[in-house]
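Running this now, will post back.
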Amino acid sequence: MFTLKAARRSRTLVRSERGTALVEFAIMAPVFLLLLVGLIEVSRYAYYALLAANGVRAGAAYGSQNTISADDVLGMRTAAVADAQGFPGGIASFSATHLCYLSGTTTACPANGTPQSNWVYFVVVTASGTVNSLFRYPGIPQSIPISASATMRVASQ
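Update: finished.
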């Protein structure tokens, strides 16, 4: 008799818990969906940041070939834009500058673009653009700026 009562109680308990998994799923599904969309957005921003970084690296690599290419800003921009294809809206701003070091301190670069033999000559390439998010989120801006910079030593001739 005791076993019959226990069996009835356990069947009643099992029947009363039917559907709880469906209710729990209905509560948690929006949370998981929000996390998934957030993960997609962060991944997109990371991808575009890598595109910008690779673009400026290509521009700096072009400019670091020799002192002649270090003065070719248009060539560095062309190399950067060609490597960063797929960046949404293209690269909005681009700059290429020179850095010169003499005995470990920053010095003004010579006007003719040809540093003396004991100088260390660098080219600095910087680019930036903006990436728009897929959805509008409350409290988060619709567009996020992305910028990248690369510095490479110019090879001596």
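The chain has four helices and four strands. More later if anyone needs it.
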